[in-house]
Amino acid sequence: MIIERTKQEVIIRLSGSINIDxxxxxxxxxxxxEIATKSNATQKDVDSLVKSIKKGRxxxxxxxxxx
Length: 67
Known about the structure:
- It contains two helices and two strands, in the order E-E-H-H.
- By secondary structure, the protein is mainly alpha-helical.
- It has a two-stranded antiparallel ribbon with strand order 1-2.
- 0% of the residues are buried.
């Protein structure tokens, strides 16, 4: 593995034999961390968003259940 830092980015070179699914999981985590550092959202904002998403998801699931 080779890690190189330029003025604007970090370049990571890996062996071609690395598991692509594992690599995608790591990239998703790094992307999340990069986005989170730019966010002005508070924990209260996040909690509110999660609550509204869960509520909407339950309503959709409930409507698909057999009566």
